[in-house]
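Possible regression after last week's pipeline update?

I re-ran a chain I had predicted before the update to compare outputs. Posting the input and the new output here so someone can diff against the archived version. Not blocking, just want to make sure nothing changed silently.
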Amino acid sequence: MHIGERIKRERRKRDWTQDDLAKHSDIPQPLISRLESGARDNPTTHVLRALARALGCSMDYLAGMYDESENEAAASALVGAGER
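New output (post-update):
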C-alpha cells in the first residue's frame, strides 16, 4: 500500500473530504489529491508531519513503516503520554 492509500484510508475513517483534510492540516487540497492518487509519492517531512498530526496517526505509519494494528497501538500510546 502506498502513502496515498494510507492517507485516504485515515481521512475516510474520519469521514473527511480532501478539503476537510486540507483545512485541518494546512496542506493544499491539490497536493492531497496528487498524493492519494499516487501521482506524487514523495511528500516532504513538513507535509507528512502536518498530515499525520491532522489524521491522528504517526508519520511512520503514513510512510509504510508498519501496519494499521501497530498504528492503533502507537496512537493509543501517544494519547496516553499526553494525559500524564
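Follow-up from reviewer: compared with the archived run. The chain has one domain: 3-77. Marking as no regression found.
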